[in-house]
Amino acid sequence: MLTYALHETMPKPSDAALAKKTLVESMADKMLEMAMNGIAVTADSLAEHSSFTRAQISSHGPDAADIAKSREVRRVA
Questions:
Q1: Exposure of 41 in the CB half-sphere (CA atoms within 13 A)
Q2: With bands split at pLDDT 50, 70 and 90, how would you rate the model's confidence at 77?
Q3: Cα–Cα distance for residue pair 14/33, rounded to 1 Å
Q4: CA dihedral of residues 14, 15, 18, 20 (deg, nearest 10)
Q5: Is residue 2 pLDDT above 90, yes or no?
Q6: Which H helix or E strand runs over 2?
Q7: Is the pLDDT confidence value at 10 over 80?
Q8: Hey, where are the domains in the chain?
Q9: What share of the chain is helix, strand, coil (3-state, %, to 5)?
Q10: Sign of the C-alpha dihedral computed for residues 38, 42, 47 and 52 taken in this order
Q11: What is the b/e burial string over 44-75, where b = at least 16 CB atoms within 10 angstroms of the residue's CB?
């Protein structure tokens, strides 16, 4: 039987790489994904296209929007 594992010379993944994102970071990522796909990001559209509840969106939405705006990259040629 074959077993697969990292070779002992390969670096082990750091714990930071495996850390779970916070709710606000996940919401910001979803907002960026929607915006890059041409979907206008509103509270209603975010509720339709994600698993976030309206209560989560109303309480964490502004913070997530700020994070999404800071992560957005625009390239103008």
A1: 20
A2: low
A3: 26
A4: -150
A5: no
A6: none
A7: no
A8: 18-71
A9: 55, 0, 45
A10: positive
A11: eebeeebebeeebbeebbeebbebbeeeeeee
Q: Nearest 5°: phi and psi at 4?
A: -115, 135
Q: 45 is written with which tokens?
A: 């559209």
Give dist(CA 37, CA 53) in Å, integer: 21
Confidence at residue 76, expressed as pLDDT on a 0 to 100 scale = 73
Query: What span, in angstroms and rounded, lies between the C-alpha atoms of 43 and 15?
Result: 33
d(C-alpha 18, C-alpha 20), whole Å: 6
Q: Sorting pLDDT into bands at 50, 70 and 90, what band is 73?
A: confident
